[in-house]
Amino acid sequence: MIRIIHGKIELLAYQHHSFSLTLTSWIRQFLSGDGTAESILEQWGDLENLLAETETEMLSSLCDSAGISPRHLHGAATHGITVYHKPTPHMPSWENGKKKMLPGSTVQIANPYHLARKFGIPVVFDFRRADVAHGGEGAPLATLFHRAVFSDPLHSRAFLNLGGIANLTFIPPSAKDGRCLSFDTGPGNMLLDLAVSHMTNGKEPYDKGGERSAAGASRSTVVEFLLDERWLLKPPPKSTGREQWGKTKFNDLLAFLKTCEPIPVNDLLASLAETTAIYIQKGLEWLDEPPDLLIIGGGGSHNTHLVDRITRVTGIPAVTTDQFGWPPQAIESMAFAYLAALTLSGRPSSLPSTTGSESPSVAGSISPPQDGSLPARIQEICQSAEIHLPFPDRATPPGFQIPGS
Q: Which domains does the chain have, with CATH numbers?
């Protein structure tokens, strides 16, 4: 939960909850793609409702811990679960007659209407499709938030989000004329988590603290196999996802390993950690100059061995967001709360320099409260939040005027 006053962002409350075993199982089943079209649609609706039930419980708990009534919130955000992300134009596999290219697409499962109905507040959702519709990658989207909270007047910084996919935001000194640049660098924790789960028969979901990979030695054969990707040569803006780095890639890796001499499990994990670090280093090479500091957030920041490996490979001093007083796993949820405020105030949240879109776009759709309070809430946000900091690449389109100003 955040509060925005005069452009400054405060973290009021934060809680981290693991999904229930039931919800986790449903998500994995859905992402497997097994089943008929009818059963997949049924799973889709059931998964949306189970996710909404979980989010409702979590928001109630968060408000209780902060001592704030949900009805006093100006709004909420739900990103949902990304089940498909292919933002580039493509030839559909089911259309062969007209040979017509279709725009890219991205799909996030969410049901915001339960939240809006339960708490009587507007809920912003479906953040990525507007940017894709403008020709963008639909990711990364948190650039403006990173800029607002991590910029420094004199020194350049880069924020590295270590989730399943790693993404980077370059933040120039606020006292200079410079533009932000954001893009996915490649795999983050995704292959590491898949490997640990596979090797432990699902008993361990991740390499806690990087203990296993720290006990191994990186193997060049594994790293070179994973670096053999044309995507690596693509300049930013760019994004990627589980379509490139999920189970299919992991199964390809397992098939490759069968052609090699046996590799100890810890060596495999060390190789995957090294691969993540090298992809991040290759991403940094797209910048005009290296940042003075690397700020790391996301669940992967708890993997101390991975963080140490990234520091060694990149040669850039690194800290986690704990140094700024914010839990690393809070950053992503804070970012989307901030994006919801941008959307509710009619401000764009994506930039052509970060997603490759043709123009800035206002992200998301809004599920309004049923009491007719949405216009008043939007008016208050517009007049009091002063969301954007005065950067040269401010995303406000020419001729744009804040409602009521």
A: 123-405 (3.30.420.40)
